[in-house]
Hints:
- This protein is mainly α.
- It is 61% helix and 6% strand.
- β5 (457-462), α20 and β6 form a beta-alpha-beta unit.
- The longest helix is centred in the middle third of the chain and has 33 residues, at 255-287.
Amino acid sequence: MNPAASSSSSTSLRHRVARWVPCLAWPRPSPALLRNEALAGLTVALMVIPQGVAYAALAGMPLVTGVYAALFPALVAVIFSSSQRLSVGPTALTSLLVGASLAPLAVPGSSEWVAMAVWLTLISGAIQMVLGAGRFGWLLRLVNSPVLIGFTQGAAVLIAISQLPALLGFTGRTIPQVLQGGPLPDLVAIAFGLGSIAVLWLGKRLAPRFPTTMALVAGAAAISWTVNYALRGGAVVGSLPAGLPSFYWPGLLPLNTFSALVLPALMITLVSFLETASSAKIDNARAGTLWNENQDLIGQGLAKLASGFSGSFPTSSSFSRSAITLYAGAQTGWATLFSVMVVAGALLWLMPLLYHVPQAVLAAVVVTAILGLVKPASFVALWRVSRIEAGIAFGTFVLTIATAPSIYWGVLGGLLASMAHYMYRHLHPRIIEVGLHPDGSLRDRHLWKLPPLAPHLYALRMDAELDFASASTLERALTVAMAERPDLTDVCLFAQPINRIDITGAEVFGSIRRMMEAKGVRLHLSGLKLPAMQVLERAGLLTAGPMLFSYRTDAEALAALAQPEEAQRAETKGSTEADLIS
């Protein structure tokens, strides 16, 4: 066998397999690359461990499950995802969605709560895998920027509010319980919480590459141990089980409970992958590659399955940790492998060191991480561009907060408003009467106060597809114009903006042509594109006749319309005979 052919065949096979297992395409590591990747992985691991514990508390889960979510899910995601440098693990938004979705169904931290959280994880992961395998990643584009802005900012406000009791020394109490009065706040907890926020804020600005979060947690634990904070009744993390996670099966749920999890699982799927998209686009842009959204859906879905079977909650790509991965100089997925090894080591040997960490510090970690999502100026920026879309964003924001804990209604409400706005614009396309501007372009005749192109001519342009949504509007515009101007002899449709015609559009075009022929009005078509032309030709609506004129370009149409009526008829007759001869 030819060695060259054998090598080529093996290379081709590797490329085909690498489409489904992208880690096979990683570059062979050099010592210099491994040193760089190890540093980046260590930086991210030292951030994800305390964040995982904090986000587990936000999700109402046992605290150690937050570290579980940063182990096997991260490993599976980096193996099967096309975006190599994303930090997959626990995130604030998905943790909030878990806590908010399960609040009416179980007691936080109970076995029932954990089982339902795992089912949320497994359902969401399965949905993402099906979407990715079926190449349905485009469906996620239905969520536009205004809805995402409104939801993320509403969720960020809710997350910040949920952490206020712990930050202000009322750990273990809800906002209503705090407002009802009771024991005085824990001043030491206030000092830990507000001091931690100050440290994290300064660390982010003065030393962004330094693992400030882990250093803060270690320092706070040391201070807590020194002052016997736990023995004095202070709220601390407490004992966390050491060791790697074992296989977890949540058991079967009653049908009514299972059905109550489907909608929250869909929202978790949507929100978590939008988080992934925001990071993946930056990662691929810097790498100069195209984003394979379907492969990332598969990788993220498998990561969620790994998280569920570890007894943890849904994972996603963290924008902040992914940014740190890029900032630390990570070039490949090897950085994530090093991060996973550090997390595994922490689970095996370092969990007892987290015992004395005050819960107020965890609340500070969550609040500091989430404050970057609160950007009121984005509403102002949207208002300057589009007041309707700014209204949709603000409405989503308000609905997200108003429907808490069922915050997924904010996304659904925003989606419905966006789709309604989209359909309204397509049902009311822009149709203008055009005139010739001095610069040679065709523009709105009434806006620019231009003369008609020719006497007894109605020249119009529709900036939309001719389909079921817009066809009746075009027909109505022509009917009104002919009723208001009975002296019309010609109508010219500048059709270049019409990219597509569907069956309804073809039927309406036929109705328009018959109506105009019955009234003795000639129809001129200019710049009709090939896809639209083919539809009309197959429907038999472009057959030659004395009342139909077609032009390839607007310049040809303008030249013909400027001719006297007799010359125009003669030219049309000659061109029709030439077409028949050819």
